[in-house]
């Protein structure tokens, strides 16, 4: 690590260079004040073999000297990064020290429905929850956040979210050798991107905007306002997570440089895809690798885009490259050899029409209603049909490939593997969805729009996975007081 003085010197050199007019003026990074990017600590399991996450209220100084009331896991805002490897047995202990009930959902994790942390796995105020499961999926960038029905937007906005990274020796992650950058906090960097309204007193303003819910005009990256990161390796893997309630980002570099996408929501791409921009809607993750030259300064930016979701221009992260960086090594040509999802002839097709901002197929979410029954291990086509507003669509427990958007193939980096997809206004998105094998006819998984206000207002449905051939026997009505231990 560079000392603070070395860092300031570097920043001064980079600023002077920028001010001398080298490089196009339109892409000159702003030399304004920057705060060191916070890197969430890696969570270690305790002596009891469990990862403990404690949700509690606290205060966070987004603006120095102006503490804001916030919520966090094991801290005052966001949570630690959990990192596990395929085959690991995960034992969690989730403690709720808030004064209201909530849940913690493992977004992107393939696990039994009772461990999923959706709205049926409520943790009462003062209570705790101890789910366990075995990691059995490829390397991926997953995350965790609350999911109490009707309250998710508020709980996430206050700060409850964290990263959950999965490694797999079969993929080209660091442990596999000659792979992708994988040293956490050094060249493997989580970026939790969130928009917030920050009042003059430094606090988070919770007034929702009509239709979309909470949308902000300030950007936090890992809870840091005006963040800067010191680049000490020539190639950096950024794990981008849109942890915002509603905002969509169009992310690239201010100078237009190309970079590579190496992973989507549900794991690594088969091969790197070179791009200059990526689109990221709430809940989605994209892993990119960008390269830097010695001593340069770069700026990761979100560009203005669709007006549908009020995409505006925001600077996300300033990057200050150390002097003396070697040229970056080439990326591996193959990142993953997981088989592509094959859609069997005659695959079942289900259609989900997104109505307004609060219903799917004409119905609002009902905790007591099982909407869909899926046989274990199925591959199905899910057609998501949008009507008015922009939305996105997330399915728990699965991975999917995006077959087409209004009949056109998606950009290669958006084809999958994914678990959350942007659905533009009036568009139809077709997904090839691979379901898991954990059967439980009485505990549903969720599918929903990940614009949190829409999810809270009812743009969500429930499905169960059952032993093939038993679909007709499922009781489609759950008791109103249904609570799983
Ligand atoms: Cu990230 Cu059902 O959610
Ligand atoms: Cu999820
Ligand atoms: Cu929506």
Explained architecture:
There is one protein chain. The chain is mainly beta. It has three domains: 4-173, Immunoglobulin-like (Sandwich), CATH 2.60.40; 188-321, Cupredoxins -  blue copper proteins (Immunoglobulin-like), CATH 2.60.40; 349-473, Cupredoxins -  blue copper proteins (Immunoglobulin-like, Sandwich). It has three helices and 32 strands. Strand 23 (349-355) and strand 24 form a beta hairpin. Mean pLDDT is 91; it is low at 1-29. One copper (II) ion is lined by residues 357, 391, 449, 451, 454, 459.
Number of helices: 3
Number of spatially distinct domains: 3
Estimate percent helicity.
Answer: under 10%
| Structural class designation | mainly beta
The side-by-side strand order for the widest beta sheet comes to 13-12-11-15-20-17-18
CATH class of the largest domain: Mainly Beta
CATH T-level topology of the largest domain:
Immunoglobulin-like
Sketch the major β-sheet: 7 strands, mixed
> What is the total tally of β strands?
32
Which descriptor suits the 3D outline?
globular
- What percentage of amino acids are in beta strands? 35-45%
Summary of the model, kept short:
The protein is mainly beta. The chain is built from 3 helices and 32 strands.
Task: Give the topology, please.
Layout: H1 4-19, E1 35-36, E2 51-63, E3 66-73, E4 82-85, E5 89-96, E6 105-107, E7 128-129, E8 132-134, E9 140-145, H2 152-157, E10 162-167, E11 188-196, E12 218-221, E13 224-225, E14 227-231, E15 235-242, E16 249-253, E17 259-264, E18 267-275, E19 277-280, E20 285-291, E21 297-302, E22 314-321, E23 349-355, E24 359-360, E25 372-375, E26 379-386, E27 391-395, E28 399-405, E29 420-423, E30 428-434, E31 445-448, H3 452-457, E32 460-466
Parallel strand pairs: 1-14, 2-5, 4-10, 11-15, 14-22, 23-26, 25-32
Antiparallel strand pairs: 2-3, 5-7, 5-8, 6-9, 9-10, 11-12, 12-13, 15-20, 16-19, 16-21, 17-18, 17-20, 21-22, 23-24, 26-30, 27-29, 27-31, 28-30, 31-32
Bound molecules: CU-O-CU linkage and copper (II) ion (2 copies).
The site of one copper (II) ion has 6 residues, from loops.
